[in-house]
Amino acid sequence: MARDKQGRPLVAVTGMGVVTSLGQGKHDTWAALTAGKSGIHRINRFPTEGLRTTIAGTIDTVEVEPFSAPLLSERLAMLAAEEAVGQSGLAESDFPGALFIAVPPVEMEWPQRQALAEASGQNGDVSYGALLQAASTGQFKPWHDLFIFGTVADRVADRFGTKGSPISLSTACSSGATAIQLGVEAIRRGEADAALCIGTDGSVNPESLIRFSLLSALSTQNENPEGASKPFSKNRDGFVMGEGGAALVLENAETAKARGATILGYVLGCGEKGDGFHRTRSSPDGTPIIAAIKAGLDDAGMSPDDIDYINAHGTSTPENDKMESMGCMAVFGERMEEVPISSNKSMIGHTLTAAGAVEAVMSLLTIANGRIPPTINHTVPDPAIPLDVVPNVARDANVSYVLSNSFGFGGQNTCLVFGAEPKS
């Protein structure tokens, strides 16, 4: 029986797919990531005059019409899932398990609001409720369906034939990791032998940029887009928005082996801890971050000494990088001086809802290839963050176990532990 130390079914990964601003598919994204290339560039999708931030890691090779975050998020989810399910060898239209998908919060976007307001013939301000009412009938009915939170999940479920009611979730920047955690828990409880876990986000639009700018969360270093995201550097000034989609096929390891599947790795531990300190800031003492890391390790039946590499949340904001560093040092102690930790966001930006899933794929590829992606743009080290951030250049290393951190606004903290094999 394939069981972990707690007697639960082992959860294997048998398929992975990813789309980022660096490329479509695992091969292109991984090659660019380990080469230290950046997918961040000036935004050309819409006018940026008057915006404080005019750069992002948009995915311009995937077009949807009319452009909207739900449609692009759906398309990115489909592309990632097609690659993951195809690699797993499971039926592409009759998936034998549940769907857990992290999607961005949805609401009607400015172009659609404007069109509805004009069509209503009303003067002055039009209430959001009136816009929804107008959208529910006639020529605008497709928009009503588009801007419902569960629509993306329904369409993905129909495409792949997943079983049961699809689960849509949004836990801020830890959403992608939460989707994986839900899949792991379903398999451990025996509710499913397989799970399709997805994180997707295509929401770089003017409204999102303005909202994050009002929180002082975004980098304003627009002059050099590729150099703007600089996690753990002293001159970091905020994150850069990115878009992406990633999917993992999880299976009961025993079932996967019985059908002759190739196992790409294991999800060994999941830890989470809420932080009610502030809507965007972490508790100053770092207690929730520390608790989430420890919970992930405990769930995997492992200690800090077992971890070979940390895939950082590493957003490039002054607050997050400081708190993540403090939390890791508190858990790993002196060993943190020798455990490499790097941030994929230095190259692809912060893919928000998709980030935890994207970084899960990168963590498993790090194990498979024995190569750690770098943290690029690290030219001015922060003396308050004495970590080995794998600066600027990828590093070959033997990596068997990875801790992947996801810390979101609203106090959502999720940490996953991946391994090449179960820990004996």
UniProtKB/TrEMBL annotation:
The Gene Ontology CC terms held by the record are: cytosol
Q: Biological process GO terms, please?
A: fatty acid biosynthetic process
Q: Where is the Ketosynthase family 3 (KS3) domain?
A: 8-420
Q: Which Pfam families match?
A: ketoacyl-synt, Ketoacyl-synt_C
Which PROSITE patterns does this UniProt record tie to the protein? KS3_1, KS3_2
Look up the record and name the pathway of this protein: Lipid metabolism; fatty acid biosynthesis
For this protein, the record's CDD domains field holds: KAS_I_II (cd00834)
Its domain of life reads Bacteria
Annotated GO MF terms: 3-oxoacyl-[acyl-carrier-protein] synthase activity
**UniProtKB keywords:** Transferase
Q: Among its keywords, does the record have Protein transport? A: no
Stated family: Belongs to the thiolase-like superfamily. Beta-ketoacyl-ACP synthases family.
What is the protein named?
Answer: Beta-ketoacyl-ACP synthase II
Origin species, per record, is Microvirga aerophila
